[in-house]
Design brief:
The complex is a heterodimer of chains A (222) and B (262). Chain A is built from nine helices and two strands, in the order αααααααββαα. Chain A is mainly alpha-helical. Chain A has a two-stranded antiparallel ribbon. In chain A, helix 6 runs antiparallel to helix 7. The radius of gyration of chain A is 21 Å and the shape is flat. The model of chain A has no long low-confidence stretch (mean pLDDT 88). With 262 residues, chain B is an alpha+beta fold. Chain B has one domain. In chain B, strands 1-4-5-6-7 form a five-stranded antiparallel sheet. Chain B has a two-stranded antiparallel ribbon with strand order 2-3. In chain B, strands 8-9 form a two-stranded parallel sheet. The radius of gyration of chain B is 23 Å and the shape is globular. The model of chain B has no long low-confidence stretch (mean pLDDT 88). Classes of the chains: A mainly alpha (222), B alpha+beta (262). Chains A and B meet through helix 4 of A and helix 1 of B.
Chain lengths: 222, 262
């Protein structure tokens, strides 16, 4: 695999920002009740990470190191404002339901993390690919979470009825738990479990080991 | 090579960065403004039509809205006001300006809106020259913030067609259930005033008993959202009462309703 391709595709399963680095989980809880809104959110985040990486990388040789975080945040925040403005102009309905979460992309750890960890040391093209790749990695997890939540919670996918609800003379009782944020913790945890069972090298080493009962000590006391 | 960390370079970089970012943002904001405002207006019109039950799938919002006539009224006297330009009227500006609004004392201010504009924009729907619906903007405090919406009354100025909010900050799943179609459907056919002309319509706690004589004046409460339910009751009492559209509705009732030249 060429280096560029590797940078683009690695974050999707091998180095997933949510599943492996456990970054950006907050928005994964908030915007995943409806698949359509989630898709818009994923698109917005992917564009912001991609372009913030690109711009940070372009100016990386001129950024004074003592204000580099401020410079990165300014670039990221500007991009988020632009995305927010675009959303209000072209998809008003979604922007009404998620406006605060679009603004909160600024604080999404993935964006800042990639700018600081990758874009500051790499060329613009590779940085852009890295941003898009991480955005896709984030999107894969969010889309899976949203699909489960919308289907089990509301019986629909992208607002199309899949499981007819009892209220609409169907047979399915919507599970309200899946419409509440805690359910995404459980779904993300299951996804992480599945991913680590598939790619064993992602499993972390145990941080400590429970000591076995020291029989000798017990015996010596007696 | 000169260090990036010199004071001059630091200041220079931050200045250039700020200039570039702010001009890009301003450009985006200015060039998209027209589209955004059109969206907001469309959303408002959609709410107005939804409150009056006039939304149809086959027709566009603009098309249906063309059949609605907008009027400015003086809330104190209840008369129409023809001196204010319809397109330049803004509820927000009017309620902020001291000359065109009134500070409410806590006793009057049951909807907790602090200032009430002296002029309001109302929407009338005529079908074959006969008044079918009147749609009035309402607002009031819920739990987390002000709820903004429209209430539509039938031509008897007593029966509700619908209540629809377009902006609020209530808790999703609890207070935000004001947007639930099932709850909104409960409003249709409810009556506002008792025989003495007092507003007695209210959102009660729990479910309305079907056979009770007062069921016509009551709507089921939102479970788990007592404060939001109370807020909705309060804002209706305020806006449909003497401080709100009371004088206007009274005058409208006395005049000939069938006449579209009212």
């Amino acid at each position: 695999m060429s280096k560029a391709k590797q940078i683009l595709l690695n974050p999707i399963f091998n180095d997933n920002p949510i599943a492996l680095q456990v970054l950006g989980v907050c928005s994964a809880l908030a915007v995943t009740t409806n698949l359509y809104v989630t898709l818009i959110m994923c698109l917005a985040l992917t564009l912001v990470v991609g372009f913030s990486n690109l711009f940070v990388s372009i100016v990386r040789n001129h950024i004074p190191s003592n204000i580099r975080i401020i410079v990165q945040i300014t670039i990221i925040a500007s991009l988020v404002v632009i995305v927010d403005e675009l959303l209000q102009a072209y998809d008003y309905e979604s922007s009404k339901t998620m406006t605060v979460f679009v603004a909160l992309i600024v604080t999404n750890c993935i964006v800042m993390g990639r700018a600081e960890a990758f874009a500051m040391q790499n060329t613009p093209f590779l940085s852009f690919l890295d941003g898009i790749g991480n955005g896709l990695g984030y999107s894969v997890i969010l889309i899976l979470v949203a699909a489960v939540r919308e289907l089990l919670g509301a019986g629909t996918l992208l607002n199309y009825e899949i499981l007819p609800l009892i209220q609409n003379n169907g047979w399915y009782t919507g599970n309200n738990f899946f419409l509440l944020p805690p359910s995404s913790f459980i779904i993300i945890a299951l996804l992480i479990w599945g991913l680590r069972a598939w790619k064993k090298d992602q499993a972390e080493e145990a941080q400590f080991k429970v000591a076995e009962n020291s029989l000798e000590l017990e015996e010596s006391k007696m | 090579m000169k260090s990036n960390n010199s004071i001059l370079k630091t200041i220079g970089v931050s200045l250039v960065l700020c200039l570039v970012c702010s001009s890009v943002i301003s450009f985006a904001a200015v060039s998209l403004k027209e589209k955004q405002e059109a969206n907001v207006l469309r959303d408002k019109q959609q709410t107005i039509l939804a409150a009056a039950g006039l939304l149809k799938e086959q027709e566009s919002v603009d098309q249906i809205f063309a059949s609605i006539s907008e009027k400015i009224i003086n809330l104190d006297t209840g008369d129409y006001d023809f001196t204010i330009d319809l397109s330049s009227y803004s509820q927000k500006d009017y309620s902020k300006n001291e000359l065109t609004s009134k500070t409410l004392v806590p006793k009057e201010d049951i909807a907790v809106i602090k200032r009430r504009e002296n002029f309001a924009k109302v929407y009338l729907y005529y079908k074959d020259e006969v008044l079918e619906a009147i749609i009035l903007p309402v607002r009031g405090l819920g739990l987390w913030g002000t709820l903004y919406g429209y209430i539509a009354l039938e031509s008897d100025l007593q029966t509700i067609i619908g209540l629809e909010f377009y902006k609020h900050k209530e808790t999703p799943g609890l207070g935000a259930e004001v947007d639930n179609p099932k709850w909104k459907a409960l409003w249709k056919g409810k009556k506002v005033y008792d025989t003495n002309g007092e507003v007695i319509l209210s959102v009660i706690k729990g479910q309305v008993k079907r056979n009770s004589p007062s069921s016509l004046y009551q709507v089921d409460g939102l479970s788990g959202a007592t404060i939001t339910s109370k807020g909705v009751t309060n804002l209706l009492h305020f806006w449909l009462g003497e401080m709100g559209y009371g004088p206007y509705l009274k005058k409208l009732k006395e005049s000939n309703l069938g006449n579209s030249n009212v």
